[in-house]
Structure formats: structure tokens, C-alpha cells
Design a protein that fits this description.
The complex is a heterotrimer of chains A (about 350), B (about 290) and C (about 240).
Chain A (H helix, E strand, L loop, with lengths): L6 H13 L10 H12 L4 H23 L8 H16 L5 H23 L4 H21 L1 H4 L23 H23 L1 H11 L1 H6 L4 H27 L9 H14 L6 H19 L1 H18 L3 H17 L5
Chain B lengths: L1 H35 L6 H19 L3 H23 L8 H23 L15 E4 L2 E4 H23 L1 H11 L1 H6 L4 H22 L10 H4 L1 H11 L5 H20 L6 H13 L9
Helix pairs in contact in B: 1-5, 1-6, 1-8, 1-10, 1-11, 2-3, 2-4, 2-8, 3-8, 5-6, 10-11
Chain C lengths: L1 E2 L2 E2 L13 E5 L6 H9 L10 E2 L2 E2 L5 H6 L2 E3 L12 H12 L14 H13 L15 H13 L5 E5 L7 H12 L6 E5 L3 H7 L2 E6 L2 E6 L1 H6 L1 H7 L7
Parallel strand pairs in C: 3-8, 3-9, 6-7, 7-8
Antiparallel strand pairs in C: 1-2, 4-5, 9-10
Helix pairs in contact in C: 3-4, 3-5, 5-6
Classes of the chains: A mainly alpha (about 350), B mainly alpha (about 290), C alpha/beta (about 240).
Chain lengths: ~350, ~290, ~240
């Protein structure tokens, strides 16, 4: 190693680097610039675009618990669906104001998250996985059977969504696009702040080595329930967005398919760096829009196959692949030294 | 009063038949999850495969019931071996998430493949005349086939239990479930054990899928549709156990039938609530160990 | 404390004085790590009490005991392998200072936490690798990070579970020096197999055999005790 530099400047530089991890980087403006540009470039696809943006919010919320806290869930749609139904019911029963509807829906979903989290997060491993599935199934059953309220298998219709900030929702999806983009931006800021906070750092600790977290005095259970609640609220906001922009809520919002799909979308983009959602969701949904229309059976098969291939060959998703390519290039540049 | 009694008997009877099907399909999953520590969400695919092979050989080749079921079992076991050796094996000890994703991907593929090969409608189920109709047990008449299911289930769990307790193979499985590394260090060939156990588990699932085609319809989305129930049986029963899933299946089967009959407006809601309660009380299942 | 039918820790009466330099030795399977797990709260005793500074802490969970200053390291390194060395220690310091639950402000603004963590790394001589992920470090250096994390919690009682275990002899010298230089106020309990380390560091030794205390006393007594010799016959590297 090099000769000892004076400790103070060295310490200062390391501390600086470490302390500034949360600073905004220029590259982070890219997705937003792209989103605005796409509005003008593809005016016929705004409705799909709005759905994509809403789903990114959903995937972002999953990343918080899966990528950062390491909680594997097969029932994240429970919160998405709760948000969707609450927003839908509000709009169908006289209160169609979107923003307040969204906030109420998010809070309702957060409540479901807090209660279910306080219960299921006492377990780990397969039991936890199972219980997340069970909770989502319970909600699905409830929505299915309470068809007088939810419309059951036919879905909830009769939603009357009022204009948001004076802009009417139109058939072209223009208002929907900006609405979803704005909500996504806010959610992204929140997620980013959480991830860079001491709380967020402790979540990565819980993910990396839970036993050690207990041994450093961390209230692990409380932290997990907290992030679970926050993520549930965000998922509920996503559900509300979908409900409000399509003016419809079907049972599918609570289904295992929905939980599975969002998991796949996030995996494709890469878990644990927040941008996996921004890559995986559009990739999945655009391909789905193309191919599911041709043949839904083929689509289902190929998405299953992709998942298998990703797990076997590219476990980090798009992010992992990019990472590996970069590291390989660096190694080659350094003359093959590892 | 007599009506309530009669209804209870009915519920118990049909509940037990349902339980036997659930048990047959899930016991393999319990053993492989306890043995290899591998979260296999595609286990139901083998059950569906068994059912499909049975149905196809019966309808398009005119094969009688018993050989058709046997064919289903054999095909499922044959498919399971390369799957375990070349795919699953790579992920033993991998992150749980990866196992979940891999097996969900496989399940998706199988659902699409089934729809492509056999169409979206459920397969017709035709038990042989010897097992159709009704038989008289005591003062009541019961559907013969369901009675057959109950008897087969009871016989099978006994055979499995004896096999686990009395044979060397069973002892090896119990050792490996208990402590894999110890088992390896006393010379048990765990990799061969895994392949054989996995094949047996898949064969049993296929048997359950084929025999149970009347209760759990053989259709493309079979593996995902009933996944929750299989997982409930396994986790409530306890991983790696043979007895545990049997009692869990009985509990689940009878309770589910009871609620369908008495409180249909709630559907499976209480089953889920019950599962939640049991798993909170005993996170490792009724017969599982830490 | 019993695991099924096996009594692992049997009526152990143990006292650790403030500022102690105490070693716990015994053959493999004697129950040393179980003892540490019981004391720190990772395991619940079937009977008996654990007192810290006169207060009964038997009912407290591990995290609560840590807050009272009861800290341990792990025999097999249990660090956050994917995170950097500095991050590992800041997590510990942050928890201690109560900063870790903060959701609203970026972790980077907590300068005091980061600087204290870095100072610890400097003291232990691992500051050069502050920004490298733990899994890239040599094993001996990882053991030092273990100790750094423990020190970051400002322990009053520190239980070191085989600190030099698995470390090549070239690197274990640093670890021994670090332990020797630990503040005198900390009550130190070291579990070790390496007798050189034990006799160099300990002022008092307890010998644990099959879950019970065989004998306890200053190093000279222990070394001369025939029962201890018998227990270790064939286990010691040199007579």
C-alpha cells in the first residue's frame, strides 16, 4: 500500500465521499426528461404510457420492501388492489376528486399494510412467503364475495372521476399521463429519501444480515413493519392511479397474477437500486402490449421462459447484467487483474 | 337434528375425499422442501401433468383407468428427473427469491403449454364403472369413487409412513431432512437421494392429480389455481414431514368443505384466517421443527 | 438450558468484574458459544437469571441488552458482506446514537456518526479499506471489522467469540494487539482455543466442560491444574 498520508485529509476525503452518496446526480434527470419527451413523441400511446407510469409506482413500492428490506412477498397486489377499490368506491359513490381520493386510498392501503405486516412479519422464510400470499388471497376472496359492494367478478363500474386540478380526464390519456407522471415523481422522491436516510441504510443491513442487526441493537421488527406500511401505501397510490385513469376496477387488481407480474417486472430491471422499476416495467408492459394482443398463450409462455432464463443466467436483471459488463470491461482495461 | 347429523356426515365424507387429493399432491412438496430446502412453487405442475396424461390416454387411446393413471405417474416421474438434475440442482442453497422466481416461471410456462396442447377447458374425468355410482356404507349411500379416494389416501399415508420409518431409504431421508451436512458426512449420497425423493414426490403428485381429477379439475391453470392450498397443507403440516401434511390436509379439506356448504358467502376466507392463526401459533407447522 | 434432551448449559454461576480480562476456554462442544448466546439474549434460558450491573436483564431481548452496553462479536464473521467497511461500522454507531431510525434526512448529513466510525477504523488500522465491500477483504481484516462494529456500540461488557478463529497466524498478531489496547474500563470476556492468546490476554480463566464450570482461577493456577491438563490432553498443540 502507499505510504501513510496525513490522517486528517484522508479521513476528510473518505468521509466526504461517503456523506455525499445521496446527492442528486445529473444522470438521474434522464427518466424525467425521457418521460416528457415521450409525451410529445408518441401522442397515440398516452393511455398506455399512463398505465406504465402508474405501474412503475407499484414496482417502486415493491423494491422498497424486496430490494432494500429483503422481504419476499407473493401478495403485494393486496395493497395495490385495496388502493384501487377504495379510490374506485369513492368515485362511484359521489366523491370523484382524484387527488384526495388517491390520498385516502393510499392511507387505506397503508393501514392494511400496517396490520398485516405487524402480523406476518413475525415469521420468516417460507412461512412469511405463504402468509403474504394468504393475506392477498383473503382480500381477493372478500372482494369476490362482497359483490354487492365491489361488483365482484364483473368489476366496479359507475366510477365518476372528476377533473384533476381543472383538467378533465380524456380518452386520449393526456391528463392521465401528466397526473401519473406527477404522482410517480413525488413517490420517487419519497422512495429516494427513504433509501438514503439512516432508516433506509439500516434496511439494507437487515437484508444483508438480520442476525447482526439484532446484535447491534436495531429494532428489526419495527423497521420492517414501518417500511412494509410505507410500501403498502405507495402501492395503494398506484392502485388508485390505475382505477382513476381507467375508471374501472376489476378483481384482477388483487390477483396472484398481478403480484407475480410486478415481481417479474422488477426482477427484469434489477432489484434494490430503485431504477429497476423504471426499466423493467416499460420493458414488460410494452412487450406485453405487442405480444399479448397477438396470442396471450404465447405471451404467458415466453414471460415464464424469460423469468427462468433471467434467474439462471442473469440474476441481477438488467442492472446486474450492466454491472457485470462494466466490471468485465474494467478488468480487461486493468490488464486482466481481478 | 337428524338432518344436521346427516349434513355433518356428508361434510366429513366429502371433506376427507378432498383432503386425500390435497395430501397426495402436497406430500411430495413437503418432503422436497424439507429435504432440499428448495421452494418449489411449480409442484402442482406434476399433479396437472399426471391428470392430463391420464385423461389423454383414456380418451384418445382408449386405455383403461388404472394403466392410464400409472402412465401419468410414470411420465411425471420421468420428467422430474432431468428437471431436478439440470435445473433445480443449480439453485439449491441459492437465494429463496431466485427459487421462487424460477419455479413461478416454470409454472407460467406449463400453464401456457397446457392451454396450447389441450385447450382451455377442463379435462373429462371418467372413472371406471367399478368405481362409479354409489355404495352403501351402514345406513347411507356414498359415491363410490370418493370412498375409493378416502381408502387410497389412508392406505397411502400408512405405506409412506412405514416406508419412512422402516426402510433404509426412509432413514436416509429423515437424516438428511434433519441435518443435511451431517448426513453427507456419514456417507449418505444426498444428491442421489434428492433426485429419487423428488421423483417420488412428483409421482405422488401426479397420482393425486390424476385420481383427484373429479375434485380438482384438470385444467391449464391448475398449478397456480391451487397453489395456495398446497402451500397451506405443507406449511401448516410442517416441512419434511409425512404425517404433518396428512393432518393439515384433513383439517383443510374438512373445514373448506364445511364452509362451502354452511357459509358459502365467505368462500375460502376463513380457511385463510385459520391458516394465519395456526402459522402464527406454530410458525414451523404442526409437525415441523425449527 | 436444554436443546431437547441435551443439557447444554448446566447451572453456570459466572461473574464478570468491571474492567475484567477474562477468558472462557474448554473443549469443542463444551457450550461456550451457547453461553454467549444465553448471556446476550440470542437464546432464552430455561432457568436462571442474567444480571448486568445488578439489574436483571433476563427478560430483555438482544437488541435491548446491546443498548445497555452488552455487546458481542461472532465466531464466524457475521458482517454485512455486500456493504462497505465504513457502512458496517456506521450502522452500529448510528444505532447507538439513536440516529438510525431517522427517515427524513439523508444519512450523509449525520457527520458525527460517519466521523466516529472512521476514527474507529483508523484506530484498528483498517481505514485504508473503508470504502471497500467487506466480502473483498482478507479474512483477518474482516475479523478486525467485527471488532470495530462491536466497539462502535460503546460496550461496557464485550464478549469476543474466538476473535482469532480462522485467521492465518500472520494476521492474528494485529488482532491480539487490538484486543490488548482495548480501553481498560470495558469488561472483556474472550472465548478462545488459542492458548497463547489466552495466557497473554487473560487475568482470569474459566474452564467449561460439557456445559458446566470445571474450574476457575488466575492463569498460573489453571495451567498447573491436572484436571485441565487431562481435559486438554491431545487437544493442545504443544504440551
Amino acid at each position: 500500500m502507499t505510504a501513510t498520508a496525513a490522517p486528517t485529509p484522508r479521513a476528510a476525503s473518505v468521509v466526504e465521499v461517503f456523506a455525499h452518496r445521496h446527492r442528486f446526480r445529473v444522470a438521474e434527470a434522464l427518466p424525467w426528461v425521457a418521460a416528457v419527451a415521450l409525451y410529445f413523441l408518441f401522442p397515440d400511446y398516452l393511455a398506455l404510457g399512463a398505465q406504465i407510469l402508474a405501474t412503475i409506482v407499484f414496482a417502486l413500492s415493491l423494491d422498497l420492501i424486496l430490494g432494500y428490506a429483503g422481504i419476499i412477498t407473493l401478495g403485494h397486489a393486496a395493497f395495490f388492489g385495496t388502493g384501487a377499490y377504495v379510490a374506485g368506491l369513492l368515485a362511484a359513490h359521489g366523491w370523484g376528486e382524484p387527488i384526495t381520493g388517491l390520498i385516502v386510498a393510499a392511507l387505506a392501503a397503508a393501514l392494511v399494510g400496517a396490520v398485516s405486516g405487524a402480523v406476518v412479519l413475525r415469521t420468516t422464510g417460507l412461512t412469511l412467503l405463504m402468509l403474504t400470499l394468504v393475506v392477498a388471497s383473503m382480500l381477493y376472496e372478500t372482494a369476490n364475495k362482497a359483490s354487492a359492494i365491489t361488483g365482484g367478478a364483473d368489476g366496479l363500474g359507475g366510477m365518476n372521476v372528476w377533473p384533476v386540478l381543472g383538467c378533465q380526464f380524456d380518452l386520449y390519456g393526456r391528463t392521465a399521463y401528466w397526473y401519473c407522471l406527477a404522482v410517480l415523481f413525488v413517490c420517487w422522491l419519497i422512495a429516494r429519501a427513504i433509501v438514503h436516510s439512516p432508516f433506509g441504510r439500516s434496511l439494507t443491513g437487515i437484508r444483508e444480515n438480520e442476525r447482526r442487526m439484532h446484535a447491534i441493537g436495531s429494532p428489526v421488527f419495527l423497521r420492517r413493519v414501518t417500511i412494509y406500511t410505507i410500501a403498502a401505501g405507495m402501492a395503494g397510490a398506484a392502485g388508485a392511479l390505475v382505477a382513476q385513469t381507467t375508471a374501472f376496477v376489476g378483481l384482477g387488481v388483487l390477483s396472484f397474477d398481478r403480484s407475480g407480474e410486478i415481481l417479474i417486472m422488477l426482477i427484469l430491471g434489477g432489484v434494490g437500486w430503485l431504477y429497476g422499476a423504471f426499466i423493467g416495467v416499460p420493458l414488460f408492459m410494452i412487450l406485453q402490449d405487442r405480444f399479448a394482443a397477438i396470442d396471450p398463450v404465447y405471451w404467458y409462455f415466453w414471460i415464464g421462459l424469460t423469468l427462468v432464463l433471467v434467474v439462471v443466467f442473469a440474476p441481477g436483471g438488467a442492472h446486474g447484467l450492466a454491472d457485470r459488463i462494466l466490471r468485465a470491461r474494467r478488468r480487461a482495461a486493468a490488464g486482466g487483474r481481478p | 337434528m337428524a338432518e344436521a347429523f346427516s349434513a355433518s356426515v356428508s361434510i366429513l365424507f366429502h371433506g376427507c375425499a378432498f383432503a386425500m387429493v390435497l395430501y397426495l399432491v402436497s406430500v411430495g412438496l413437503s418432503v422436497t422442501m424439507g429435504l432440499m430446502g428448495f421452494v418449489n412453487l411449480a409442484h402442482g405442475v406434476f399433479a396437472a401433468l399426471g391428470g392430463y396424461i391420464m385423461a389423454t390416454t383414456m380418451t384418445s387411446m382408449g386405455v383403461p383407468f388404472v394403466p392410464a393413471v400409472a402412465a401419468g405417474v410414470v411420465v411425471a416421474m420421468a420428467v422430474s428427473v432431468p428437471l431436478e438434475r439440470f435445473l433445480y440442482r443449480r439453485l439449491y442453497g441459492a437465494d429463496e427469491l431466485e427459487q421462487v422466481l424460477l419455479t413461478i416461471g416454470l409454472a407460467f410456462m406449463s400453464v401456457a403449454a397446457a392451454k396450447f396442447l389441450w385447450g382451455p377447458l377442463p379435462q373429462p374425468f371418467n372413472p371406471p364403472p367399478a368405481l362409479s355410482g354409489q355404495i352403501t356404507l351402514g345406513t347411507r349411500e356414498f359415491p363410490t369413487y370418493r370412498s375409493f379416494l378416502i381408502v387410497s389416501g389412508a392406505v397411502l399415508v400408512t405405506v409412506l409412513w412405514l416406508g419412512l420409518e422402516r426402510t433404509r431409504f426412509g432413514a436416509q431421508i429423515r437424516a438428511a431432512v434433519d441435518n443435511r451436512r451431517m448426513a453427507q458426512s456419514v456417507g449418505i449420497n444426498t444428491s442421489r437421494l434428492f433426485t429419487v425423493a423428488f421423483a417420488l414426490g412428483s409421482g405422488l403428485a401426479a397420482l393425486g392429480g390424476a385420481l383427484g381429477g373429479d375434485i380438482l379439475a384438470i385444467e391449464p391453470a391448475y398449478s397456480l389455481e391451487h397453489l395456495v392450498y398446497f402451500l397451506i397443507v405443507v406449511s401448516v403440516g410442517g416441512l419434511g414431514s409425512i404425517r404433518g401434511p396428512f393432518f393439515a390436509a384433513l383439517l383443510l379439506g374438512v373445514t373448506d368443505t364445511a364452509f362451502q356448504y354452511l357459509l358459502p358467502q365467505f368462500g375460502a376466507f376463513f380457511i385463510y384466517a385459520l391458516t394465519l392463526a395456526v402459522l402464527l401459533w406454530r410458525p414451523h407447522g404442526l409437525f415441523g421443527h425449527a | 438450558m436444554s436443546f431437547g434432551a441435551l443439557r447444554v448449559a448446566n447451572a453456570i454461576d459466572f461473574r464478570l468484574e468491571p474492567g475484567a480480562r477474562h477468558a472462557l476456554i474448554g473443549p469443542n462442544g463444551a457450550g461456550k458459544t451457547t453461553f454467549v448466546n444465553l448471556v446476550t439474549g440470542a437464546l432464552t434460558p430455561s432457568e436462571g437469571r442474567i444480571l448486568l450491573g445488578g439489574d436483571d436483564i433476563t427478560a430483555l431481548v438482544q437488541a435491548q441488552r446491546v443498548k445497555l452496553g452488552l455487546v458481542r462479536t461472532f465466531q464466524i464473521t457475521a458482517l454485512f458482506r455486500g456493504l462497505t467497511v465504513l457502512e458496517n461500522v456506521t450502522l452500529a454507531v448510528g444505532e447507538r446514537l439513536g440516529a438510525a431510525g431517522d427517515i427524513f434526512r439523508p444519512a450523509g448529513t449525520r457527520r458525527a456518526v460517519i466521523e466516529e466510525a472512521f476514527l474507529l477504523l483508523e484506530r484498528l488500522g483498517i481505514a485504508d479499506e473503508a470504502l471497500r465491500p467487506v466480502r473483498e477483504l482478507a479474512y483477518g481484516r474482516q475479523r478486525l471489522v467485527e471488532i470495530a462494529v462491536a466497539l462502535g456500540l460503546d460496550p461496557k461488557v464485550l464478549l469476543l467469540d474466538e476473535p482469532a478463529a480462522g485467521v492465518p497466524s500472520a494476521e492474528s498478531g494485529t488482532i491480539i494487539e487490538v484486543i490488548e489496547q482495548l480501553p481498560a474500563e470495558i469488561a472483556l470476556l474472550i472465548i478462545e482455543h488459542d492458548m497463547d492468546l489466552v495466557f497473554r490476554l487473560a487475568r482470569r480463566i474459566t474452564v467449561l466442560v460439557q456445559g458446566a464450570v470445571l474450574v476457575e482461577g488466575p492463569p498460573a493456577e489453571i495451567a498447573a491444574d491436572p484436571r485441565v491438563r487431562q481435559v486438554y490432553l491431545g487437544e493442545r498443540e504443544h504440551a
